Amino acid sequence: MVGGEGLHAAASQSERIAAIRAATPVGFFINARTDCFLAVAAVEHETRIADALDRARAYAEAGADGLFVPGLRDPALIAQICEESPLPVNIMVSPGTPSLARLASLGAARISHAGAPWRLAMQGLAEAAAIAHRREG
Q: Considering the entire predicted model, what is its pTM?
């Protein structure tokens, strides 16, 4: 979905993952991403669980080591994905996401902060530059 509309078919994503697996050294971690829950109203998330789990199974078979599931915030759905996925699950933290401790208790193996730390750093840098500019002006 990033940079486009809709999701690539699971089969084509699996082919990409298999090609990456074949081209990388032992120990290279492939964190396969599924955007099933991004740009979709939270009320629709439950209807997308089956697709996300189908993708998890296909990506595992293709050689992925983890499943990155950005956009999912509902604790029950996070627990379901973590329980039923053949891959360890990476959850992206965003407003409304359970606490880190809660995510761990739900089964999340990895936590991602995505671009939030960078955005906060850039905001702080812009504010500092504006203050310095006002002092000089």
A: 0.80
Q: Which two tokens stand for residue 21?
A: 């697996």
**What is the separation of C-alpha 51 from the centre of its chain, rounded to a whole number of angstroms?**
15
Domains of the chain: 10-136 (3.20.20.60)
The contacts of residue 103 (CB under 8 Å, 6+ apart) are 78, 91, 93, 97, 111
Task: Note the pLDDT of residue 130.
Answer: 87
Q: Is the dihedral of CA 20, 88, 55, 94 positive or negative?
A: negative
Q: What is the mean pLDDT of residues 66-81?
A: 95
Q: Which of 68, 73, 47 is nearest to 1 (CA)?
A: 68
Nearest to 59 by CA among 12, 110, 17: 17
List phi, psi (to 5°) of 67: -120, 120
Quick count: other Cβ atoms within 10 Å of Cβ 126? Answer: 10
112 beta partners:
92
